Amino acid sequence: MKPDEVLKACAGKGGLIGVCAAPNTTLTRNHSNHSIESVMEHFEYLVELVGIEHVGFGPDTFFGDHSAIQHAFDDRLGISDSHSGEEFHESPYVEGLENPAEAMKNMIAWMVNQGYDRTEIIKAAGGNAMRVMEEILQ
C-alpha cells in the first residue's frame, strides 16, 4: 500500500515488504470482495515488481473484531488515505484468511495451487524475514 518507488527503494536496500491481509486494506479492482484472492493479487504484483526475495507474508489476522481494530489503525496511522475516492464494500474479515490459526497455511496452499516452487514458498512464508533479521543482527 505504498507507491512503487518506495517499494523498489525498500527492495533495493535488501529489505522486505510484508503483504498485509487486514480487512479492507488489500482490495483490488479484480477482487472487490476482500478475500484471499485480493490479498494474493497484491502478493503477485509485488513479486513482479521487486522479486520474490523481497516479499513476505504478514497477514495481520487475529481473533476478534477485525474491522473495529482496522478502523482504529486507519484513524491513528492515516492508512485510510490510501482508499480515498474509491468505492468498496467494507468487509468484517478477509474471506479465506478469517481464522488466524489458518491464515498462513491458506496463503501457502494458494501458492502451491498456483505452481510456486518450494524455494519460493519458503521465502514468502518466512525465509525472507529470517534473512533480513540475520542481516540486521550481524
UniProtKB/TrEMBL annotation:
InterPro entries: Metal_Hydrolase, Pept_M19
Gene3D superfamilies assigned: Metal-dependent hydrolases
One Pfam family in the UniProt entry: Peptidase_M19
SUPFAM superfamilies named among the record's database cross-references: Metallo-dependent hydrolases
Listed name of the protein: Microsomal dipeptidase-like Zn-dependent dipeptidase
